Amino acid sequence: MPPHAKPSQVQVSLEQRITNIEKLLKWLGGFSGLSMIGLLSFAFFLGSLNTKVSSSEATINKVHEDVSTGERSLLVRTSLIESRLSSIDTKLSTMDTKLDDLVNFRERTGVKVKTLPEPVPKQ
Q1: Buried b (16+ CB within 10 A) or exposed e, 92-117
Q2: Cβ–Cβ contacts within 10 Å for residue 73, how many?
Q3: What is the per-residue burial (b if ≥16 Cβ within 10 Å, else e) of 41-71?
């Protein structure tokens, strides 16, 4: 027979086919208990995941309620920070005005600030 020729198919009898199918079913039947255990464990995993999501949802709802309507809510804290920032802004504006007045006074009086000569480095 040439090397590139296909081997002829072997004719399998009906009894051999039935025997092969029975062997396959017995082999797959051995995994039925294992697959049942797998399905039950997967169902248990999904149930525990559902419980975790439910408890997380309750926690998220509680945090949202505290942030939006609680005594120390985000709105209250934001308004406190805004009032502090506005007072700081007012103080900075008054300082800016005072510095402008000082610069104008200096320019009117002609006061010049002398700079000190640089020290001679020691050798």
Answers
A1: eeeeeeeeeeeeeeeeeeeeeeeeee
A2: 14
A3: eeeeeeeeeeeeeeeeeeeeeeeeeeeeeee
What is the rounded CA–CA span in Å between residue 82 and residue 78?
A: 6
| Secondary structure letter of residue 111 according to DSSP | -
Whether the model pTM is above 0.85: no
pLDDT digits (tens, 9 = 90+) for 47-79: 888 888 777 888 888 877 777 776 667 777 787
C-alpha–C-alpha distance, residues 1 and 101, integer Å: 113
98: left (phi over 0), alpha (psi -120 to 50) or beta: alpha
Which residue, 54, 28, 58, is CA-closest to 66?
A: 58
In 13-114, DSSP assigns E strands to: none
